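User:
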Amino acid sequence: MEPRRRAMRDDQKQLRRQALIDAAWQLFTSSDYPAITMAGVAEHAGLAKGTLYLYFNTKEELFLAVLAQQFQAWMDELDARLAAGAATVAAVAEPICDTLARRAPLVRLLAILHTILEHNIELASALEFKQMLRERLARTGALLEAALPALGAGNGPAALLHIYALIIGIENLANPAPVVRAALRQPGMELFDIAFGPAFAAALVALLRGLARPE
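Assistant: Predicted structure:
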């Protein structure tokens, strides 16, 4: 009976880990990252704070796991949309913009990945995340190449990295610090008043056209 008891314990551990990830995500959808505490996540999950630290050593490690799950969910939907066929820049850009428009919290998480979430984590967590990222970029990159053949064979993953860089940059421009946002309300600052959706769509189309341009 020992193997069965061990399997049950492992299953319960996975359920608790997922409950903590779900709780952290739910809090993040309605709050900023700095305002969320590990104690708050544990309480939201209905678990003791000490239990949380059995699964995640730091807040950054917890939210890296949150990002990994949300990123893969986005890639899953994008894969399905790209597999339906495209062939033009506009047809490829549309599902990327559409799927991101419904994932504003994911965009916010991506924007703090390198500056916050990839700090204060262990090597094993960093390696696991990067391996997942590499595999997903390869899979979705192949579909991107099939949907837009002008990109060229093998260039899909790199194109996705360029798109990812656009997401980070435009999100940070569109959501500055409160004091900067107040400054942008002054006359003459209209240039810097950026809405993520329209700015990202325009930059994405320009990027894809440049990458798909024949040499």
